[in-house]
């Protein structure tokens, strides 16, 4: 099965649920288990897109717009290749590592059995990147 993060009132605590239970028709909100997307699958896909785009490059302000576009497009191409019945939203932020923190927050209202969100924090020696993918069943 696969696990999903379940938010709690305490932001330091994350509970993990097992695979959602199938309905009487054997489907989970209309989808088969094979049609669902796991966080592990999404994590690898996003990291691959970031590493292919940036790799070991040093931060260069003039390249950030292109890197951002390439990561988002790379994620969307990989997601389309999964041929799963979802709509996707991908966001990506790059900052230069300079000792400052980067904070981000997001929320959504959806069908928690099939829809999801996964955020990847990635960095090298001079770059911090946060990329988030949302997937919503069609």
What keyword list fits this structure?
two-stranded antiparallel ribbon, alpha+beta, 25% helix, 138 residues, 5 strands, 3-stranded antiparallel sheet, disordered N terminus, 28% strand
Describe the overall structure.
Helices cover 25% and strands 28% of the residues. The chain is α+β, with helices and mostly antiparallel strands and 138 residues long. A hairpin with a 3-residue loop joins β4 (116-123) and β5. α1 (39-53) packs antiparallel against α2. The chain is elongated, with a radius of gyration of 17 Å. The chain starts with a strand and ends with a strand. The model is unreliable at 1-8 and 10-18 (pLDDT under 50).
Blueprint of the fold:
Layout: E1 4-7, E2 14-17, H1 39-53, H2 64-82, E3 86-96, E4 116-123, E5 127-137
Antiparallel strand pairs: 1-2, 3-5, 4-5
């Amino acid at each position: 099965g696969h696990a999903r993060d379940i938010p709690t009132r305490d932001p330091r605590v994350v509970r993990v649920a097992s695979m959602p239970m199938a309905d009487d028709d054997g489907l989970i909100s209309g989808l088969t288990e094979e049609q669902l997307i796991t966080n592990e699958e999404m994590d690898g896909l996003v990291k691959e897109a970031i590493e292919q785009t940036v790799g070991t490059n040093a931060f260069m302000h003039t390249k950030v717009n292109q890197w951002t576009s390439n990561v988002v497009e790379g994620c969307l191409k990989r997601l389309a290749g999964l041929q799963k019945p979802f709509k996707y939203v991908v966001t990506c932020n790059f900052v230069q590592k300079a000792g400052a923190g980067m904070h981000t927050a997001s929320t959504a209202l959806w069908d928690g059995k099939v829809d999801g969100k996964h955020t990847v924090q990635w960095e090298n020696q001079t770059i911090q990147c946060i990329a988030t993918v949302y997937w919503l069943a069609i």
